[in-house]
Amino acid sequence: MPAFQDLTGQRFGKLVVIDRAPNAGPNVMWNCRCDCGNERQVYGMSLKRKGARAATSCGCERIKSVAAAGRGNAAKIVGKKFGRLMVVGDSVSRAGRKILWKCVCDCGQEVSALSSNLIAGKSRSCGCLRIDAIQERHEYAAAMKRIEEELAADCDNCGGDDVREENGFDGASYDVCVDCGDVGSMREAEPVLDAHATHEPAKVAAKLPPPVATGRRLPWGGVR
Predict the structure, then answer these.
(1) Cross-sheet strand order for the sheet of 173-177
(2) d(CA 177, CA 160)
(3) Which residues of the chain have pLDDT under 50?
(4) How far apart are CA 155 and CA 142, in angstroms?
(5) Is 148 exposed, middle or buried (0-12, 13-18, 19+ CB in 10 A)?
(6) How many CB atoms lie within 10 A of CB 84?
């Protein structure tokens, strides 16, 4: 086991060791003061460590490096447009240690967004883009419903869709609206009667579907 080493008064980067702090489990802790004035407890092993992982400040150095990176990003994104968002500057707010950039949407609303989300296309509006997309889908669905209703309305007279096929004495079949009795266009002729036989109208009429009382005259002489 290595011998205990008293670090009191020693400097490690911007940190000066003041005195011993209570241990954190088996780890030796030291009270340190940073050149910026902050005091914090630091692991002894972190103070003696070499390289980038060594404790050399209270954290102010990292904050400065993040701020410097933010200033570099500012030159890249301020004044640029991402979707409907125009970046106008630093919002002063932070998401952890990340800068939230102040943006103005085309609709006039102001929002804050991370530069990573702006560049990746995750932040493209204040939310109005999603609302517009939903509205467009609803309008499209309503338009399609109207088209389906128009296509379903088979009767040119009343717009009803309850149309059935009936055969006339002339051997042709017709579309007849059950609602208003309107006779539509003639369908392709189908030989429903024997051309060599003599047919009595009464016998043929008996084979047709029961009429609906509408008062309209049909091609075979009947009246609805």
Answers:
(1) 163-167, 173-177, 183-186
(2) 7
(3) 186-193, 195-199, 201-208, 211-213, 223-224
(4) 22
(5) exposed
(6) 18
